Amino acid sequence: MNSELTEMLGLEFPVCGFSHCRDVVIALSKAGGLGVLGTARYSPEQFDIELSKIDEALDGKPYGVTIIFPAAKPDAQPMDPESLRSQVPEDYWDYIGSLKERFGIPLQSVDGPGDGAVNAYPLTRDHALAMLEVVKKHPVALVSSAIGAPPTDAVEELHALGMKVSGQVGDPKHVQRHLDAGVDLIVATGTEAGGHTGEIGSLVLTPQVVRAAGDIPVLTAGGVGTGAQVAAAFALGAQGVWMGSAWLVTQESDLPEPLKELLVKASVSDTRRSRSLSGRMARQLRTPWVEAWEEEGAPEPLLPPLQGVLVKDAQSAMLRAQGGVNSGTPVGQIVGDLTAIRPVRDVLQEIMADSVEAAERVQNAYSGLI
Ligand SMILES: Cc1cc2nc3c(=O)[nH]c(=O)nc-3n(C[C@H](O)[C@H](O)[C@H](O)COP(=O)(O)O)c2cc1C
User: Fold this and answer.
1) Tell me, what CATH number does 186's domain have?
2) Residues 278, 305: contact at Cβ < 8 Å?
3) Residue 62 lies in a domain
4) 355 ligand 1 Cβ < 6 A
5) 301 lies in the same domain as 271
6) pLDDT of residue 78
7) Assigned domain for 105 exists
8) Residue among 15, 18, 242 whose CB has most ligand 1 atoms within 8 A, to mutate
9) Which residues of the chain fall short of a pLDDT of 50?
């Protein structure tokens, strides 16, 4: 297919696929899309290892990474994990203690390092900059900045290394910030999306972001999981799509099997936007853990990065010891369309074949006019 995205990155299909799982990223890029690895789960050292394995498996085929750049306050102090933990009020640790008991979370692993949880590392600027140093050592095709706009000097450095940079926005008013930073691509993330998300639906958001972005190509993210939605993204003016939730239930995904099964059974109504994961609104599977933060008497989730620091070890333990069925995962409303666990390649090929049918339906409706 021809789009500004496929041309920019040398792809067969106009699909970027986000995952924290290396094998999903490899499978996506091998299948003709762009696999994009998330950083939030990794230390810089582990991230380096993951990228080396991807480099070896892909042998020159393009892939991407995302880095979460929280907006820096001018007076921001370096934030090490210990000092962050000490800033969490005592009654919050008490609440976690009560949840540990209620959900039977094994104490041993609760005190572990939190590796494996989606938010294993605090979303601080220091962590983002350390990840950036790792990225610069690898042949990464696209670096995507999540939450905040990437720092302009980082964009310049990445451009000098031949990498493209994209920025994710959930509101058209944030587009200019990313354009000023010098991004090559904008990802318009609608409220339907899994993970951090705003309040505007993709159908409204994409055309407004396209208008605001001018010559810079835009991708639709949030609520894309079928071929019809890929074709719709093009109709809205996007040059491709960015998908995350659909890959969670693939064979290559390293989510525990019980959690994959839960996702397969979930309906479109089984997600919640909640601040319980990181302190920012993130759409997640509605699980007992997420509901516990909404019930009467529960404390208001802390602001980022403290909420992530507070919950990460318990979440990691629930993932490891209980298959993730209590803790859940970020996932978007498209979860209602995920009905089987299949290989990444099959999912991508079916979506692309269905998108051709959807495009034909549009063409038929307009026959005589085009
Ligand atoms: C489990 C999960 C974790 C995510 N974590 C991140 C992340 O760390 N960084 C990021 O840029 N986007 C993250 N996202 C958002 C995706 O990049 C993407 O915007 C979103 O999944 C698109 O909407 P969809 O879920 O409807 O496909 C995450 C999404 C999911 C489902």
Assistant:
1) 3.20.20.70
2) yes
3) yes
4) no
5) yes
6) 53
7) yes
8) 18
9) 74-75, 109-114
